[in-house]
Amino acid sequence: MAILLLIVAAAEIYAHKNTDESVKLYRIELNRVENELKAHEGKEGYFIDVTKYETIMSCETLDEIDQIDQYASNYHYVIRDINGKLYKIEYNVDLSAEHESFIKMTHVIVIVLTATVLVFLIMIWFTIIRTFETISDYPSLLAKGNLTIPLKEQKNKYFGRFIWGLDMLREKLEDEKNRNLKLQKEKNVFIMSLSHDMKTPISAIKLYTSALRKGLYKDEDKLKDTADKIAENADQIEKYVSEIVSASGDDFLDLKVNNSEFYLSSVIEEIRKYYSDKLENIGTDLKIDNYSDVLLAGDSERVIEVIQNIMENAIKYGDERYISICFNDEDNSRLITVTNSGCTLSENETAHIFESFYRGSNVGSRAGSGLGLYICKKLLSQMGGEIFAEQSEGNFSITVVLSRK
Questions:
Q1: Which residues contact 101 (CB under 8 A, 6 or more apart)?
Q2: What is the bridge-based pairing of β-strands 295-298 and 260-263?
Q3: Helix ranges (DSSP H) in 136-251
Q4: Is the pTM of this model over 0.70?
Q5: CA–CA gap between residue 195 and residue 198 (Å, rounded)
Q6: Largest CA distance in the chain
Q7: Residue 368 zone, left/alpha/beta (φ > 0; ψ -120 to 50; rest)
Q8: d(C-alpha 381, C-alpha 375), whole Å
Q9: Nearest partner of 120 among 8, 6, 4, judged by Cα
Q10: Which residues contact 126 (CB under 8 A, 6 or more apart)?
Q11: Mean pLDDT for each consecutive 10-residue tract of the chain (405 residues)?
């Protein structure tokens, strides 16, 4: 709209400028005609050639002043007295045909531009702004847990993938919610059942220990039998505790992997694109070695997730001097090693960093759940890959092993 207004203003200024010039031209040419008459005054048979003037229409002599009203004229005229002789000079101050054509063309262009801008703005309203208004409240509904309302498909294709992704997120959150509720219910039932089952052996142990404390059993065989009963009930309690530990150790994460084929470059370029600016902002040098592109087996999105987890740990626990990514081949596998400068983790802790909820002694006050590398290991296991860590010369490295196709 600003550009359109500038074009309109420029066109109008130019048109008015040309109009002013046309108005000034007739005055100049009247003076020229008058000067020409004075220069040729008294010459017999001389007449003014008005064709060489743009605004002068005619130049005639008048015998008497009364004759002026006898002439009908479609133009403006002036009467000039040249040495006692009257001349009637007709002139035209209307715009030239070219100028009128330019004015009309300017107005046509302005109308066309205005219509184009309006159509464009209406198109933006219906295809973009209105769609955003439709989905503007959707993220807040998801945050509040309202997961039952699906997003309606839009006729335009501008937001197809965006709306499809939001709806996929809704479905995933809804599945997670239902799964968590079901899991919580199963855990509650399981704990209540075990609690009820454990009451019997605990009560028995209490009775036997109370009898022993009071010295009710004097016979050696009876004492031995009581001890056996206590041990039997203790074994039963230990069995229940083992079941609780086993249940809590089950995989509590629903990690789905879509195994297929992908090129290494598709993963590394995503990592480069995301972390180049991020590391530059914190003053950390990112070094990515040259590599030959190969076809790998697995889920490219999950591999990106794995390397992102490793990169985030490198940023969080390194000394922020540099992070490097290098590549090696071993048997039928491609090894991707992420190394960060600075390592404050003790050697004996390295073997435990892939365990669930494990956090090393170097975490300090940094937030975390201890699940990042555990998730990486689980994902790679489903893709037929491996992951391991090592320390060398004050640096910490984590290597991802992926199978080549």
A1: none
A2: antiparallel
A3: 138-143, 160-213, 220-249
A4: no
A5: 5
A6: 171
A7: left
A8: 10
A9: 4
A10: 156
A11: 76 66 74 86 77 84 60 73 82 63 76 86 84 77 71 66 78 80 77 78 85 80 84 84 65 76 94 90 92 94 93 89 94 94 82 78 67 89 93 90 93
In angstroms, rounded to a whole number, what is the distance separating the alpha carbons of residues 106 and 108?
5
In Å, how far are 199, 289, 290, 294, 331 from 328, measured between CA atoms? 58, 10, 11, 12, 10
Say which residues have a Cβ less than 8 Å from residue 317's Cβ, sequence separation at least 6.
Answer: 340, 342, 343, 344, 345, 362, 363, 366, 396
Q: Smallest Cα–Cα separation from 37: which of 53, 23, 21?
A: 53
What single-letter amino acid sits at 257? Answer: V
Instruction: Confirm if 237 and 266 have CB atoms less than 8 A apart.
Output: no
Residues belonging to the chain: 405
At 34, the amino acid letter reads E
For 100, the token pair is 């009128």
Output the six-digit token pair for 94.
């209307």
Strands 285-288 vs 322-330: parallel, antiparallel or unpaired: parallel
Give the C-alpha separation, 163 to 158, whole Å.
10
Give the position of tokens 């201890």. 370
For residue 129, what are its two tokens? 């702004």
Structure tokens at 390: 């090592």
Residue 283 Ramachandran class (φ > 0 left, ψ -120 to 50 alpha, else beta): left
Domains of the chain (ranges; CATH) run 2-97 (no CATH), 161-249 (1.10.287.130), 260-403 (3.30.565.10)
Residue 54 backbone dihedrals phi, psi, to 5 degrees: -80, -35
Q: In b/e form, how buried is each residue of 242-267, taking b as 16+ CB within 10 angstroms?
A: eeeeeeeeeeeeeeebeeeebebeeb
User: Which residues have C-beta within 8 Å of that of residue 334, sequence separation ≥ 6?
Assistant: 264, 294, 296, 327, 328, 401, 402, 404
